[in-house]
Design brief:
single chain; 55% helix; alpha/beta; 5 strands; 167 residues; 5-stranded parallel beta sheet; Rossmann fold
Length: 167
């Protein structure tokens, strides 16, 4: 496996994983695997419907299967779902096989982003705030934290490339 052949982006919802992932993949000439889009393709319906129809347990099964497929590929940037690394087995596999970066933003920034662009079924500010509090320690425990607050995806990508160092 060549250096940086699998980069994973973790972090809370609306921290910038997809936007940064797209640009980072393009910069590094890697493919992007957006785990949420993979799950939607597998299920044939949007994430909120998957949760509604299958519950969190069913969603997490689809997520683990999509992650398995992504981890078999090389030359990818994987934009993980906000809770993908809550499962100890998924976390262990990602840490073993990927260079992981954890995107973070202030709660105010995340709440602001959640209302942008007409995102379907964005969580209420109260629900998102609760989720951030519940997962705070989890996100703090992950590697290579990059703050995206007030920064463009290009600025975040430049920091990640600096952190990756030379190939």
């Amino acid at each position: 496996m060549k250096p940086h052949s699998r980069i994973a982006l973790a972090g809370p919802p609306f921290s910038g994983k997809t936007a940064v992932g797209k640009r980072l993949a393009r910069m590094l000439e890697l493919d992007l695997v957006d785990l949420d889009r993979e799950i939607e393709a597998d299920a044939g319906r949007p994430i909120p419907e998957v949760f509604s129809d299958l519950g969190e347990r069913g969603f997490r099964k689809l997520e683990a299967a999509a992650l398995d497929r992504a981890l078999r590929r090389e030359g990818v940037v994987i934009a993980l779902g906000g809770g993908a690394l809550l499962d100890p087995d998924c976390r262990r596999r990602v840490l073993r096989t990927c260079t992981l970066f954890t995107l973070w933003a202030s709660e105010e920034e995340i709440l602001s982003r959640s209302g942008e662009g007409g995102r379907p079924l964005a969580p209420t500010p109260q629900a998102l705030s609760r989720l951030l509090r519940e997962r705070h320690r989890h996100y703090l425990s992950l590697r290579n934290r990059v703050d995206t607050t007030g920064r463009t995806p290009e600025e975040v990508c430049a920091e990640i490339v600096r952190m990756l160092g030379p190939d």
